[in-house]
Amino acid sequence: MSTFKNIILIGAMGSIGSVVLAALEKEPSFTITLVQRASSKATMPAHLKTITVSNSYPTNELIPVFRGQDVVINCMTSLSVADQFRIIDAAIAAGVRRYVPSEYGLNNTRRDAQALNLVFHDKGKIQEYLRAKAQSGVIEWMSISCGMWLRWSMANDFLGMHIGERRFVFWDDGEGYFSCTTEENSAQGLVNALLAAGTDRDDWKNTNIYLSDFAITQKQLLEAIERIQGVKYTTETIDSYSFIKEKQAAVAAGDVVGTFALIETGFVTGRYGGHLEKEGEIQNDKLGLPKKSLDEVVEAALKAYGDI
Ligand SMILES: NC(=O)c1ccc[n+]([C@@H]2O[C@H](COP(=O)([O-])OP(=O)(O)OC[C@H]3O[C@@H](n4cnc5c(N)ncnc54)[C@H](OP(=O)(O)O)[C@@H]3O)[C@@H](O)[C@H]2O)c1
Ligand SMILES: *[C@@H]1O[C@H](CO)[C@@H](O)[C@H](O)[C@H]1NC(C)=O
């Protein structure tokens, strides 16, 4: 049994927060408290304690909320990850033992990834901040790098997939490798790593945990979709180098959505640390996660999309 008992979850009704919550709730030893923004429209589960804080997560409001808590798990939305500097400061001041940042991506400690878009940049800086704090002994941390979620990607027209239109967009030759983990394995990996705390298997303290069910290319992804649906897609190709220039200029001019195109580019080109097998040791087996095949995951994602 984990030495962690009291768990705070931020962003509990989000794409990954809801899956993390389901995994946490399977553990009867955890007492879960949710933190929600004042302007949130989410309906929180009535059987759990929810505490409302101001939208910007002010440190002074969070300190009393975090007191007596062992772990803060953050599943907040991409564009707000820099708010975590204030949240981490509150966790340290309140004596929280372990912080799990909103990460769930690629190797954001890479300078080239940080230079590609603001979200990779801010996530990388948050990791650097946590590393420094852990070195001075005031808090532990761990983060999950899981590559892409195919179900989320399909629902959000990501990775070149436009399922409804039977259209697929390749970045360059479509041969860049990127790792994928299901939402469920990402969440279960997080929970299993927490459960190891305080045991002789506590191997994930102060580390970025690399998860991958498999690494694929865009070409392999399209082949799987066409094989499972039994239809042919129309394809297009974009040049990643000019696309990056165009989107970075658009973001600089105020186009917020352009950041998501740059995030996507970070994965599909294979150039920015999204092929996790190349970046570090994959922990799926050590964390006891079930194996998933590409076809099984694509089929489930198509079902969730409602197009199979
Ligand atoms: N690997 C992948 O394929 C993948 C895909 C998508 C996202 N991600 C990553 O996973 C993490 C979570 O992303 P997500 O898509 O799950 O998040 P999301 O669903 O967009 O949002 C999660 C929660 O963030 C909270 N939040 C905090 N500040 C907010 C703001 N200014 N506007 C809106 N919501 C705000 C909200 O909680 P309350 O309403 O309860 O306050 C919201 O429910 C991010 O780090 C993201 O980059 C990874
Ligand atoms: C992640 O990127 C950093 C910076 O480029 C690199 O030093 C490190 O080896 C990469 N992988 C891991 C497992 O940290």
Automatic annotation (TrEMBL):
Q: Where is the NmrA-like domain?
A: 5-244
The UniProt keyword set, sorted, is: NADP, Oxidoreductase, Signal
Is-annotated flag, keyword Transferase? Answer: no
Q: Write the signal peptide boundaries.
A: 1-22
Q: Which GO molecular function entries does the Swiss-Prot or TrEMBL record give? A: oxidoreductase activity
What is this organism's lineage? Answer: Eukaryota, Fungi, Dikarya, Ascomycota, Pezizomycotina
Q: Which Pfam families match?
A: NmrA (PF05368)
> What's the name of the protein?
NmrA-like domain-containing protein
